[in-house]
């Protein structure tokens, strides 16, 4: 099925020596228009992503959906992201480690901080998000110089900036707006699926521990 004149490429960087069955099953069940499948498996993650973009440009794709293999996807992921007709729009992906927060970031005086004041299910504008499940209009790669994805060093603190956040910085500098559709959630695979409920449970447990610690402190006075 072709959607208008869109030529979709789906890029999967294979940075693991195996592909989880959960990823494969969810990929098979996704609603997909006609698409070209691109994968790369030789090198670090920034190289893999750049290789995928170069191939997508060579085959004259109009859109590139970047999908990581350590996630599971909703069947309507592609349909929903394409429907926005935006240059850059991602799905909601939570970190697979505490505090399990969604990777939807705003730049502040203290650096990148999670966006929390949004209605779940809404389209959220942000300054940075991950590349685990994100749809690009290929024009963004034609306007920005190679290499698009690269690890950088933060000049303020010397910490490494990931290839995903670094590319978001370049997009913002070029004037692009970045969005995350929070109605589209990709579950991050670890020993469990990490999603919004995991993040909420973590926060509740942390608050309960703080309450108990405070009560214990009062009793000891």
List keywords for this structure.
221 residues; alpha+beta; Spore Coat Polysaccharide Biosynthesis Protein SpsA, Chain A; 9-stranded mixed sheet; 3-stranded antiparallel sheet; 14 strands; 32% helix
Low-confidence stretches: none
Shape: globular
How much helix is in the residues?
25-40%
The H/E string reads EHEHEEHEEEEEEHEEHEEH
Fraction in beta strands: 25-35%
CATH architecture: Alpha-Beta Complex
How many individual β-strands? 14
The helix-and-strand class reads: alpha+beta
Mean pLDDT: 93
- Please report the number of helical segments: 6
C-alpha end-to-end distance: 71 Å
Q: Please, how many domains?
A: 1
CATH topology: Spore Coat Polysaccharide Biosynthesis Protein SpsA, Chain A
* Rg (C-alpha, Å): 19 Å
**Could you describe the largest sheet, including whether it forms a barrel?**
9 strands, mixed
Per CATH, the class reads: Alpha Beta
């Amino acid at each position: 099925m072709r959607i208008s004149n869109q030529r979709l490429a789906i890029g999967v960087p294979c940075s693991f020596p195996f592909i989880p069955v959960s990823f494969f099953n969810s990929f098979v069940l996704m609603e997909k228009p006609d698409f070209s499948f691109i994968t790369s498996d030789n090198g670090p993650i920034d190289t893999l992503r750049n290789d995928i973009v170069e191939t997508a440009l060579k085959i004259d794709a109009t859109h590139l959906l970047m999908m990581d293999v350590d996630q599971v996807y909703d069947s309507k992921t592609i349909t929903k992201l394409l429907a926005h007709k935006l240059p850059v729009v991602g799905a909601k992906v939570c970190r697979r480690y505490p505090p399990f927060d969604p990777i939807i970031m705003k730049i502040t005086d203290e650096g990148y901080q999670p966006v929390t004041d949004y209605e779940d299910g809404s389209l959220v504008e942000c300054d940075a998000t991950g590349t685990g499940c994100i749809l690009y209009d290929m024009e963004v790669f034609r306007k920005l110089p190679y290499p698009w994805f690269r690890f950088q060093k933060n000049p303020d603190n010397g910490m490494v900036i990931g290839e995903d956040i670094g590319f978001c910085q370049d997009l913002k500098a070029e004037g692009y707006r970045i969005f995350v559709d929070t109605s589209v959630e990709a579950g991050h695979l670890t020993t469990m699926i990490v999603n919004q409920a995991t993040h909420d449970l973590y926060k509740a447990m942390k608050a309960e521990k703080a309450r108990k610690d405070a009560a214990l402190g009062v009793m000891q006075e």
